[in-house]
Amino acid sequence: MAKAVAHICILVADIDKAIEDYKQIFRTVSPGLVEREVVKQERWAGDERYITAFFEAPGDGVDIQLLQPPDTESPLFKRLEKAGEGVHHIAFSSSHLDDSYRQLKADGIAVNDHLVPEHPEGDLTTDVRHFWILPRSAHGVLVELIDDYRVEKGLLTGRR
Predict the structure, then answer these.
(1) What are phi and psi for residue 139, nearest 5 degrees?
(2) Are 50 and 67 in contact (CB under 8 A)?
(3) Is 0.70 surpassed by the pTM of this model?
């Protein structure tokens, strides 16, 4: 139901600096990640705002997402203060998100209590949804399952 890894998300304190630093790194270690535009975008997941940017991988490669808290009141900021910068989650995309959610829950895997709708800042139309497989079921790793998506002109957008 879910495809191979869709993206790896890195929590950062300063997304502008992180974009520049990762561009420099990827030019050498994975040049395909810097062939396309990287755009900073404000988005909402449920009632939580966040700032993100995607390095789009060519073909079936794994995208890299940068994630920055929007302010000091954000749960992301609290996590950043506690754990510092680093990998936030690993994401798999699915064209059958509802089925995946129900099956994992039925199998006793710890997931959050609902599918979370996402949308870009300024547009209340949901373009993707996601849910979390909680670290207690994934040996300390936060795993996201997200609707199939694409990165278009540097921006995350749903395939629906």
Answers:
(1) 50, 45
(2) yes
(3) yes
